[in-house]
Specification:
Blueprint lengths: L5 H4 L3 E5 L4 H12 L3 E6 L8 H5 L5 E6 L5 H11 L3 E4 L6 H6 L1 H21 L5 E5 L25 H21 L5 E7 L1 E3 L9 H9 L5 E3 L5 E6 L1 H15 L9 E4 L6 E3 H12 L5 E3 L24 H7 L7 H16 L4 H13 L3
Helix pairs in contact: 2-13, 4-6, 6-7, 8-10, 10-12, 12-13
């Protein structure tokens, strides 16, 4: 497997949208390790606990823009100030459940926000490479195929999935209409269900697991039989960096297309099996209850539904980018538990996160 080139990344001006979120935060730490001049653009971090503040990430940023991605003029001003060579676009409303509760904000954030990024790329000559992050939920999941590859039909019956599928179409249209003959190359990426230390996002299963099992409280599951492509957050981020390098190269146009960054097939497992693996690693005595019709998710105002099974095929990525997952599901879970234990012990979480990444980079 290839790894990111320290020589390539050192000194590169990079803009990460959504840098105050979980995944964007981990990406900023990775970029700092590689010696980048990292800039972030996002709303303020959410919640009492969040990765950005807990890791004290602000210290590694050249610019920390706090603004809404849907405001094009402010976005243009920020980009003109930091003059990025590479953009990673992660800013989004990323929850299926929240998309049911606030559909309009989801559409504005995901679709208009992506359109604005594409407008900036279209107008700006300093940007050479752009990776726009969507989701593994962009595929029309009618159970016709067990594993979705990059050519599978796009769709989405819920607003979140639909909004992200729209982003894929927008990127394709902008590329063909404006960007294809420019000096910038753009690609979209679809990862699996990421987890790791510092994810306090509401209604995420790993957050719920750690908040309950570590103190032996009862954990309630709404979809125990659902399968997902679980992976540690480091895995796809390494892939995004490799793709950005290729997009920046002389042959970059050959990589301007969608890419799946999913885990190995063995890591596709049922929610209940992931819970039991965490329970074993934590040594918890918690009880697990099933409530498929919880009033929190099924009431007069909302009736939330999600696909039962979701699997993505990353063979193209393995072959053309030489990227492959390196962590077993057991190691991914252990790393996450270790991070939360470090949090409880009030360790330096910036250094702890860097150490986890550096250990990953040294895996043979």
């Amino acid at each position: 497997m290839r790894l990111p080139s320290q020589k390539f990344w050192h000194g590169k001006k990079v803009l990460v949208t959504g840098h105050t979120g979980f995944k964007g935060g981990w990406l900023c730490v990775l970029l700092d390790i590689l010696g980048c001049k990292t800039n972030g653009l996002s709303l303020d971090p959410v919640g009492k606990y969040n990765f950005f503040n807990t890791v004290k990430l602000k210290k590694v940023l050249y610019n920390d823009f706090r603004q809404d991605i849907s405001n094009l003029k402010k976005l243009e001003k920020a980009v003109n100030k930091c003059k990025p060579e590479i953009i990673f676009h992660l800013a989004a409303q990323s929850s299926v459940i929240q998309s049911f509760k606030n559909s309009h904000d989801t559409i504005v954030s995901n679709i208009i926000g992506t359109a604005n990024i594409l407008e900036v790329i279209k107008q700006n000559k300093t940007i050479k490479s752009a990776v726009l992050i969507t989701t593994d939920k962009v595929y029309q999941n009618y159970k016709i195929k067990k594993f979705f590859d990059e050519n599978s039909q796009l769709g989405g019956d819920d607003i979140y999935s639909g909004s992200k599928a729209c982003c894929e179409l927008l990127v394709h249209s902008y590329r063909k209409s404006f960007i294809e003959n420019s000096n910038c190359n753009v690609a979209t990426v679809r990862a699996g269900n990421c987890f790791g230390g510092g994810d306090w996002t509401k209604e995420r299963i790993v957050k719920d697991i750690l908040e309950t099992l570590t103190i032996n409280k009862t954990l309630t599951l709404r979809s125990p039989e659902a399968t997902r492509p679980w992976q540690h957050v480091i895995e796809p981020l390494i892939g995004y960096l490799l793709l950005a390098e290729r997009l920046y190269s002389k042959n970059g146009k050959n990589f301007s297309e969608p890419w799946n960054f999913g885990p190995s097939l063995q890591q596709n497992m049922k929610v209940k099996n992931l819970v039991n693996l965490f329970k074993k690693k934590i040594g918890s005595k918690s009880k697990i209850l099933i409530d498929k019709k919880s009033k929190k998710f099924h009431n007069k105002k909302i009736d939330i539904f999600e696909s039962k099974d979701l699997n993505i095929n990353s063979k193209k990525t393995y072959k053309k980018l030489l990227w492959k997952p390196r962590l077993s599901i057991e190691n991914s879970v252990q790393m996450t538990v270790d991070w939360y234990n470090a949090f409880k012990l009030k360790k330096d979480l910036f250094e702890f996160t860097k150490n986890q990444i550096n250990k990953y980079l040294k895996i043979k």
